[in-house]
Amino acid sequence: MVLPPSFQSDNPNQVCRLVRSLYGLKQASRQWNDKLTGALLSNVAGNNPVQINQLKQFLDRSFKIKDLGQLNFFLGIKAFRNSKGLNICQRKYTLEILEENGFLESKPANTPFTTGLRLTNLEGDLLDNPGIYRRLVGKLLYLTNTRPDISYAVQQLSQFVDKPRHTHLTAAHRVLRYLKGSPGNGLFYSSNSDIKVQGFSDSDWATCAESRKSITGYCIYIGKYLVSWRTKKQATISRSSSEAEYRALASTVCEIQWLIYLLADLKIHIDSPVALFCDNRSAIAIGENFVFHERTKHIEIDCHVVRQKIHEGVIKLLAISSHNQNADGFTKALPKPSFDFFHSKLGLQDLHAPA
User: What CATH number belongs to 194-320?
Assistant: First the structure.
């Protein structure tokens, strides 16, 4: 805080009383964002140690920061860096969840969700203490930051936090038993990866037994390493599997476009179209064919962002078999062999597993 330009005082130690805190104003977040954005855009980040130190010194002059050294542990996420790359995991956080719920000595499960299980709001008795279920699901949601293999299971469980039942808690306990088998699994990013973006989009049509809404699942890679993934129930009911797949494509395209913008901010430009794989040829035809009026007139206009990005050369749709669809595990519960294949494509690494 500085004195107003017109303020005159003979006492150099005199200060102004703060009538209202800046952080209490509605404009506080916008002002902070403007200042931080301006400061960051005026400097360029990189992997040069000299430039990194210069950036730290600049930020310290602007915001009075403290250099805590190499990233090691942040918000429950462990970061381990060596010459090969970076591994991030939440082993300590996972063990705390298992201990809190009494599953440290449980028998591990092969998959996080039972194949063919359909949870509903009506089957099973209501829990006497729903807070236990809500806390568990909330912690599992945070765990998906480094454990994409449980994304589908947690998405299913999170739909019932309002009135959880014993069947829902049993399904949540299976996730804990699965985590018991590999609490140290985490994402690995190689230091020698090429900058090639590719995505996989999938959908499970009318999978919700009550609303008949479909599930969107996608995963996006830079090189061979997973950087973005999602499992989400679609907002509207799709009239066909092709429509459900096309809506999933629209969500994936928007995510890819956001990643391209992010990479551009980091001075990395993607020249060639991003390969987007889909296992539904009809959905690919809808995206590439501008004359399918009768089959697509009921689909919302915002879904046709797929056509626009194809026309602009941002993405290129490619067909892929369902067996090789990496996003399959984000839309449904898979049996053990299929889940193992899905798991192998996520780039998970366990530093604590025996050699």
Answer: 3.30.420.10
